[in-house]
């Protein structure tokens, strides 16, 4: 299970105007504000399902985070494709 701070950041990205842009443009500042640990920062910067899983991010929040950082992903990824990614596929 991810720490509350990680979950809160990902959830806040859909609630707080401008936060997605800040995470993309100045992630270290945002990560500092949320009190994230070095491993959490590294995983969020890497942004892969495997990296996010390594810090305990729930699969639904992983999908949200990936789509916030890569909005075009929503038009290319199905739930099956995402499930395959979680299992280490393409």
TrEMBL record:
GO molecular function, one term: dioxygenase activity
Record-linked InterPro entries: CarBa (IPR034945), LigA_sf (IPR036622)
Domain of life, source organism: Bacteria
Keyword vocabulary terms for this entry: Dioxygenase, Oxidoreductase, Plasmid
Protein name: 2'-aminobiphenyl-2,3-diol 1,2-dioxygenase CarBa
Organism: Metapseudomonas resinovorans NBRC 106553
Upper taxonomic lineage: Bacteria, Pseudomonadati, Pseudomonadota, Gammaproteobacteria, Pseudomonadales
């Amino acid at each position: 299970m991810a720490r509350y701070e990680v979950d809160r950041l990902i959830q806040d990205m859909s609630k707080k105007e401008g936060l997605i842009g800040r995470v993309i443009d100045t992630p270290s500042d945002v990560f500092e504000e949320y009190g994230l640990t070095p491993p959490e920062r590294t995983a969020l910067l890497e942004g892969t399902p495997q990296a996010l899983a390594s810090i305990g991010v729930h699969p639904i929040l992983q999908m949200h985070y990936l789509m916030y950082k890569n909005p075009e992903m929503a038009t290319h990824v199905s739930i099956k494709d995402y499930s395959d990614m979680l299992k280490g596929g393409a």
